[in-house]
């Protein structure tokens, strides 16, 4: 992780944009945030997280079609511990059940 607290990475999420927008407020938690189209800015005392997303072609397995959303995460001004703490909570809220 860079020393200046800047990190950018990309994930493919198994959800539609509508599902993403439903779970996003809970995943972000107490942080102030603002959505502008297919992006959102999450505010932290020491920096921010910029999220950008776009739908990709669905994954197809036989007759099953699963939505896919590409999400770019760009942290600015946060150290590795702050980023990890946020992502732990975020992942708990966006993870899908399974067994």
Q: Strand-and-helix sequence, N→C?
A: EHEEEEH
The total strand number stands at 5
Rg from C-alpha positions? 14 Å
Please state how the strands of the largest beta sheet are arranged side by side: 1-5-4-3-2
Number of helices: 2
- Summarize the amount of helix as a percent range: 25-40%
Shape field: elongated
Quaternary structure: single chain
Largest sheet: 5 strands, antiparallel
Approximately what portion of the residues adopt beta-strand conformation?
Answer: 35-45%
What is the arithmetic mean of pLDDT? Answer: 91
Structural class category: alpha+beta
How many angstroms does the end-to-end distance come to?
A: 32 Å
Q: pLDDT under 50 segments (min length 5)? A: none
